[in-house]
Each structure stands twice: as structure tokens, then as C-alpha cells.
């Protein structure tokens, strides 16, 4: 079923995106503030905290620009502002999307290097070189995103629809160069980071299976093996990959509508990305035990103001101490 850009559908997408925007901003602001508190306490960030902080900033900036563009197109239905202004906003949104995808992929790669030791000497050296320059990589990713998206203004053309269905500043492929660029951007922003994340997911899964076998063998099956904080990191990483793959499927559908069906699916793309940034931020909070405990406590404290909602409280259970191997993250 193809979603046409009728006025009712556009307003519906705008409202749903607004709800996602509130959640996205809340979760990512929470991550950012918790990271700042960690920095004040420890006077430095771990590589993981550096990546997560950069990701939360990219998520927040993307959501703000995305919703601002959608709001302005609803208000300025006649597109009285310059088309270039709207097009630059869209370019920045897609640049931030590129940054989000690759930063998430880099975070997954980081955790895989902490959990899995590769026997290949050359591969290990590459990992060490990258991890020594985490801050540099985090800064290079948005610059790569911007340089990748700049050609949009030349190879893509403004959408030529009726005023009823027109989205201000929408740029779509109209010829062979535009189609080629659209495909290249899709590969660079979605498929390549997705391949890297799947590779890391497979490595972590294999490591988990081998580790569990070794632990069962060492305990002779007398009790179930425990992985402590390592299991939380593994669950978070695998959940990030699953959320990303679900997003990639629906985002490919949006690109199909643009490239093959010649439909303007930019609103769908923005909606899908908003949903993705919401759930991925929640997964990131879960992955950091201190973040998760503070979020649950704040949630329960908030519900105490409304006695009728006390049934919605979440138990704040403490994990039992374990001598199992832990991962510092």
C-alpha cells in the first residue's frame, strides 16, 4: 500500500513524528546530561562514552531539524520562503542521518573489539589504531556525511508536484545521475554500516556461544553460567543491530517509493528515522547500567506524584554480585 501525500496523511505523519520527537529529545538529553555528569566526576570520557555522547547529539540535532522542516512545510504551504533554504535543511537532515548510522555502527564495532579477540594480527592492529583515535573518528564521521550529501543540490532537482502535495524544498532524482547518486547514498548511509553491524553481531554471538560452553564446562553444569555486566553489553549491542535492521528495511521501502514509484516519500523517511532514534536511544540507556538505574528511579519517582498510576511502577532490582568477567563501558 502506497501512502499518498494527502493533507490528512501529512498531518498524521507530522503528529506521530512530533510524539517521537518528544521521546527522542528526552532520551538523548538524558544520555547527554548523564555523560556530562560522568565527565565531571571522572575528568574524562571513556571511548564508549565519547561515542554515545556524539550519537546523542546527532540524534537530537537530527530530530530538531527534521521536525522543524515538517512544521514549516505545514505552516508555509505556499512555500514562500526560498526553496534553497528548505533544500539546505533537508541536506543537513540527511547528513545527520548518515552520521547517526555510522556512529551507531562504530559503537557496535567498539563493543565487538572489547568482547571478541580476533586472532588475525593485521585486523587486531587496525582495531587498535582506530580505538586509539576514537575522538578523531567521531569528528570525521559528520564531515564525511556532509561531503556525501553536498552533491544532492546539483544532481537532484526540486520536486514538481501540485501545490497540495508539494513539500517545500523536496529534492528527488529526475535523471540517470540523480538515480545513481540516490543509490550510492543509500549504500553508503544504510547498507555499508548495516553490513559492519551484522558482522559485529555475528562475531559477538559466536563469542557468546563459545564463552557459555567454556563456562558450563568449567562448572560441570552444576549451575547456570553468569556473565555479569558483559551480558548487558551483549544484549544492548544485539538489540541495536536488530533495531537498525528493522529501520533499514522500512527505509529501503521509502527509497523504493522515491526511486521506482517516483513518489515523494521524504515524510515517511523522516518518520522512520524518528522512530529509529527513539528506540536506539532507549537501548543505549539500557546498555549503561548507571543510566538505566537512574532512568528507572526517575520514572518511579514521577509516578509517585500520581497514586492512581502506582501500578505502572517498575521494580528497581539490584543485580547480584558476580565474579564473572566484566566489560568496562
TrEMBL record:
Record Pfam families: TAS2R
MF (Gene Ontology): bitter taste receptor activity; G protein-coupled receptor activity
Keywords: G-protein coupled receptor, Membrane, Receptor, Sensory transduction, Taste, Transducer, Transmembrane, Transmembrane helix
InterPro entries: TAS2R
GO CC annotation terms, alphabetical: membrane
CDD domains attached to this UniProt entry: 7tm_classA_rhodopsin-like (cd00637)
Gene3D superfamilies according to UniProt: Rhodopsin 7-helix transmembrane proteins
Localization, UniProt: Membrane
Transmembrane segment boundaries: 12-36, 48-72, 84-113, 134-157, 191-212, 233-254, 266-287
Its membrane topology: Multi-pass membrane protein
Protein family: Belongs to the G-protein coupled receptor T2R family.
Alphabetical list of PANTHER family matching this protein: TASTE RECEPTOR TYPE 2
Protein name: Taste receptor type 2
Organism the protein comes from: Oncorhynchus kisutch
Gene from which this protein is expressed: LOC109873624
Amino acid at each position: 500500500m502506497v501512502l499518498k501525500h494527502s493533507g490528512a496523511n501529512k498531518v498524521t505523519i507530522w503528529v506521530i513524528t512530533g510524539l517521537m520527537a518528544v521521546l527522542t529529545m528526552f532520551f538523548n538529553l538524558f544520555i547527554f546530561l548523564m555523560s556530562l555528569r560522568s565527565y565531571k566526576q571522572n575528568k574524562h570520557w571513556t571511548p564508549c562514552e565519547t561515542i554515545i555522547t556524539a550519537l546523542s547529539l546527532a540524534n537530537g540535532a537530527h530530530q530538531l531539524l527534521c521536525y522543524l522542516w515538517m512544521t514549516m512545510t505545514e505552516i508555509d504551504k505556499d512555500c514562500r520562503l526560498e526553496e534553497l533554504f528548505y533544500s539546505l535543511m533537508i541536506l543537513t537532515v540527511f547528513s545527520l542521518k548518515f552520521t547517526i548510522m555510522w556512529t551507531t555502527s562504530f559503537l557496535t564495532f567498539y563493543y565487538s573489539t572489547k568482547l571478541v579477540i580476533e586472532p588475525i594480527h593485521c585486523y587486531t592492529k587496525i582495531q587498535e589504531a582506530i580505538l586509539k583515535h576514537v575522538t578523531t573518528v567521531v569528528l570525521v564521521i559528520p564531515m564525511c556525511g556532509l561531503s556525501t550529501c553536498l552533491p544532492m543540490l546539483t544532481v537532484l532537482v526540486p520536486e514538481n508536484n501540485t501545490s497540495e502535495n508539494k513539500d517545500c524544498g523536496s529534492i528527488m532524482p529526475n535523471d540517470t545521475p540523480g538515480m545513481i547518486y540516490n543509490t550510492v547514498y543509500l549504500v553508503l548511509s544504510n547498507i555499508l554500516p548495516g553490513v559492519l553491524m551484522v558482522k559485529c553481531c555475528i562475531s559477538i554471538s559466536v563469542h557468546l556461544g563459545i564463552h557459555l560452553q567454556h563456562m558450563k564446562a568449567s562448572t560441570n553444569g552444576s549451575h547456570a553460567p553468569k556473565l555479569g555486566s558483559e551480558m548487558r553489553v551483549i544484549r544492548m549491542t544485539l538489540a541495536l543491530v536488530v533495531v537498525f535492521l528493522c529501520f533499514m528495511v522500512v527505509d529501503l521501502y521509502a527509497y523504493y517509493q522515491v526511486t521506482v514509484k517516483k513518489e515523494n516519500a521524504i515524510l515517511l523517511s523522516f518518520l522512520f528515522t524518528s522512530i529509529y532514534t527513539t528506540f536506539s536511544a532507549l537501548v543505549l540507556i539500557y546498555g549503561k547500567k548507571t543510566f538505566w538505574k537512574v532512568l528507572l528511579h526517575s520514572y518511579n519517582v514521577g509516578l509517585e506524584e500520581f497514586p492512581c498510576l502506582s501500578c505502572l511502577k517498575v521494580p528497581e532490582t539490584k543485580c547480584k554480585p558476580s565474579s564473572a568477567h566484566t566489560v568496562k563501558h
